[in-house]
Amino acid sequence: MTKYGVIVGSTRKNSYSEAIAKSIVKGLPENSEVKFITIGDLPLYNQDLDENSPKEYTRFRAEVSQQDAIIFVTPEHNRSIPAALKNALDIASRPWGENVWDGKPALVASQSISGISGVLANHVLRQSLTFLNMPTMQQPEVYIANSNNLFDENLQPTNKGTEDFLKSVGEQFSSFVSKFQ
């Protein structure tokens, strides 16, 4: 059984990023263990806290370390990733030499309510994951444009093509992850 951690870059309730993540997860094998890992409660990373980390840091690092692979779904904020997501990356990569992201296969999906589809956030995140030594699935690239038009008020996909695509992304990521086990 493979353990998949899901990190949603948006801290907003009922976000489109969360809806996309839930649609991707539907493509994972039935025997997968999926954990949505919360990042909204993490205090800002401060190296002074490495020796006596807040309980939120400790909880987050432990949850990430228990996963076999990580799915990231993020919106784009000002042509980059949200501050909460960058903070989470930093927390789980510290203290120096204790990077719990190390070697975990990753999937990056981005979305935007605009036509640009979060492409810049996607690539900013990929740069960080390269440094964190996370092999990242290259294809299919997952850029979702006009996300506000793809889900209903319950955040269920309204378009069969989108639903099928996101499920297939989960299937392909499972195949990618199997190469590292």
TrEMBL record:
InterPro entries: Flavoprotein-like_sf (IPR029039), FMN_Rdtase-like_dom (IPR005025), NAD(P)H-dep_reductase (IPR050712). It holds the Pfam family FMN_red. GO terms for molecular function: FMN binding; oxidoreductase activity. Coiled coil: none annotated. Residues 3-147 form the NADPH-dependent FMN reductase-like domain. One of its GO terms (cellular component) is cytosol. It comes from the Bacteria. This is NADPH-dependent FMN reductase-like domain-containing protein. It comes from Enterococcus moraviensis ATCC BAA-383. The lineage of its organism: Bacteria, Bacillati, Bacillota, Bacilli, Lactobacillales.
